[in-house]
TrEMBL record:
GO biological process, one term: methylation
Keywords, alphabetical: Methyltransferase, Transferase
GO MF entry, a single one: methyltransferase activity
Protein name: Methyltransferase domain-containing protein
Coiled-coil intervals, chain numbering: none
Length: 249
């Protein structure tokens, strides 16, 4: 598929730093514990989990360790040592790594749980990418999708201090209606759908003097004043993410 807003080289450079740190993995992934509890059911039978665009594997390793579930990473990143190290540090021994391009790969099997984190927004035709996720779902399986929210005031902020990062995201997919339409197309139940999180203060580029002032002012305002409120009362104008959980009938 030729409508990707990023390249394989971009992601390999983006994840070049080492993510093999148990405390860091736990800190990042436990932030979403209320959703993992909603998503994964306890079972005496072996369950399977796949992440689309799963590199560097920290969510898979965290969930594999927390729920004793077999994780599979599907990603076209060529560095398998990083994800192998992440699984090892989290004590996960039963896993699979698939170096495949999701846009062309045809899965021969389905899974109990499918997760997709920060993936569909990097494509022009995000609806086609969304639809491909269903191919990986067993009957009665679940799909969890997380994407950043860069609309509302977040867009204005990103335009000022994080423009390059803003441009590789397709903001057209960042509407709750996109996910309602997706569920309707495939007759999926929506178990959860909402904006989530505080204001995304972090940036992905070097800042000039004016941008540093903007960044520091927002960090002071949102981190200590607004974000505690947003964690309880998410907003489409200010919250950092959209999270959706679907269940196949």
């Amino acid at each position: 598929m030729s409508d990707k807003l990023t390249t394989q080289q971009y992601w390999e450079a983006y994840y070049a730093s080492n993510h093999i740190n148990k405390e860091r993995i736990t800190s990042v992934c436990s932030y979403y514990d209320e959703f993992w509890e909603m998503f994964i059911k306890d079972s005496t039978e072996e369950q399977s989990l796949i992440e689309i665009g799963g590199f560097p594997g920290r969510y898979l390793a965290y969930l594999g360790a927390k729920y004793n579930i077999k994780p599979t990473c599907l990603d076209y990143n060529s560095d398998t040592k990083e994800i192998e190290g992440v699984f090892k540090v989290m004590g996960v021994e039963n896993y699979e790594i698939m170096q495949q391009d999701f846009t062309v790969y045809k899965t021969p099997i389905q899974y109990d749980y499918v997760i997709s984190n920060g993936f569909i927004e990097h494509f022009e035709d995000f609806n086609t990418i969304l639809d491909l996720h269903v191919d990986y779902m067993k009957p009665q399986s679940k799909l969890l999708i997380m994407i950043p929210n860069m609309r509302g005031y977040v867009r204005f902020y990103k335009y000022l201090v994080d423009y390059k990062n803003l441009k590789i995201h397709n903001l057209k997919c960042m509407h709750l209606q996109v996910f309602k339409d997706f569920a309707k197309r495939h007759d999926l139940n929506i178990n959860y759908l909402s904006h989530y999180g505080g204001f995304p203060i972090g940036v992905h580029q070097k800042l000039n003097i004016a941008q540093k002032l903007i960044f520091k002012a927002h960090r002071l305002l949102f981190k200590f004043v607004v974000n505690p409120y947003l964690m309880k009362h998410p907003s489409r104008f200010f919250s950092s993410s959209i999270i959706a959980i679907f269940e196949k009938k």
